[in-house]
Write a structure and sequence with these properties.
Elements: H1 2-17, H2 19-27, H3 32-46, H4 49-67, E1 82-85, E2 89-93, E3 97-98, E4 102-105, E5 114-118, E6 124-126, E7 132-134, E8 138-146, E9 153-161, E10 168-170, E11 173-175, H5 192-207, E12 214-216, H6 221-235, H7 237-243, E13 257-260, H8 271-279, E14 285-287, H9 294-297, E15 305-308, H10 311-320, H11 324-328
Parallel strand pairs: 2-9
Antiparallel strand pairs: 1-4, 3-7, 5-8, 6-7, 8-9, 10-11, 12-13, 13-15, 14-15
Helix pairs in contact: 1-2, 1-3, 1-4, 6-7
Zinc ion is lined by residues 216, 252, 257, 259, 305.
């Protein structure tokens, strides 16, 4: 009987911690529970502290048992008894990939191998490392199971969005940033007008003793894909997203962007960097990712990266003191 009282006590305590718990009881229309609770309250007052402690211990055990319906082989060896993921939902575009981070517990289980399975490989595939790749628009689930204990698994809800089909112009300006992607097959090469303007700028700088060199111009979707994935492998996704665009999101794919001289932020303080910042607007360019605008542009300061807008627009943006996102009132944020 005392055990039953303890359990009700525990229920009461848990319900006080999680108010939604009470609502669930109401939904279940369990009218007997509140009455029992009142009786128990009195009993609690008489209980000694020592017994309270015991009750807490029991709680811990009860919770574990309630949450885990997992059967662990009783052969004296350590087996995996739970799987945790860093995310349980994944949203990717067709052709894009994402990979949840897996933790198998307990830590000292010798075999933590994973078995990955997609519920619908027409929607998304998953490789042996848990890399999920979108195949076509739709939803499915991907499950990871412990090879050591097939009773233990975790499920990821996968949403695959359609590939980008059109380019986006805002106020007549072609946009490629974290919000607006270019189609994978948008492959215009370097823009002739932008290239002429670049040469004009390089020549003008030269007459003032400033040597500008173009080190990167047009990049195709597939080139960017390779670049970005290499950066992710080296620095991780979060860090790579600060300085490298995901495929389809790079301004270099527009054919209107150029990197000059040096990919070091110290370029800002060189003679060339200063000249570029002060004069590029005269030739139709802007410093696309200015200092202090990382939260708006989505990229860290890049004193070497210029974007061609044409002389009129470049002048207006320069004089506004805003970055392009602020000037147009748009965002630059990945969906996931
Ligand atoms: Zn660049």
């Amino acid at each position: 009987m005392k055990n039953i009282i303890r359990m009700v006590n525990i229920l009461l305590a848990v319900c006080m911690l999680f108010p939604s718990c009470g609502r669930k009881s109401n939904l279940a229309s369990d009218d007997t529970l509140p009455d029992t609770t009142v009786e128990v309250k009195d009993t609690t007052a008489e209980d000694t502290t020592a017994e309270d402690t015991t009750a807490e211990d029991t709680t811990a055990e009860d919770t574990t048992e309630a949450d885990t319906t997992v059967v662990v082989p009783n052969d004296g060896k350590v087996h995996v008894d739970s799987i945790k993921l860093d995310k349980y939902t994944v949203t990717v575009k067709v052709g894009e990939s994402d990979m949840p981070w897996v933790t198998m517990l307990p830590e000292n289980a010798p075999d933590k191998s994973e078995i990955w399975k997609s519920s619908d490989t027409k929607i998304a595939t998953v490789n042996t490392y848990g890399k999920i790749t979108g195949v076509s628009e739709g939803e499915c689930t991907v499950t990871v199971t412990s090879a050591d204990n097939e009773n233990v698994s975790a499920t990821v809800k996968v949403t695959v969005k359609g590939a980008v089909k059109e380019v986006t112009y805002i106020d007549g300006i072609l946009i490629a940033n974290k919000t607006y992607a270019l189609p994978a097959d948008y492959n215009p090469g370097v823009d002739a007008q932008a290239n002429n303007a670049l040469n004009e700028m390089i020549n003008a700088a030269k007459t003032e003793g400033v040597i500008l060199r173009m080190i990167s111009g047009f990049r195709s979707y597939s080139t960017q894909n390779t670049l970005y994935n290499n950066y992710v492998a080296r620095d991780g996704k979060a860090e790579a997203d600060r300085y490298s665009a995901r495929p389809g999101h790079s301004e270099h794919q527009t054919g209107l962007a150029f990197d000059l001289n040096s990919l070091e932020q110290s370029f800002e303080n060189t003679k060339e960097g200063k000249w570029l910042a002060e004069n590029c607007w005269k030739y139709g360019f802007i410093i696309r990712y200015p200092k202090g605008k990382e939260s708006v542009t989505g990229y860290m300061f890049e004193p070497w990266h210029v974007r061609y807008l044409g002389k009129d627009v470049a002048k207006k943006v320069y004089e506004s003191g805003k970055c392009l996102e602020e000037y147009l009132g748009i965002t630059s944020v990945y969906e996931n």
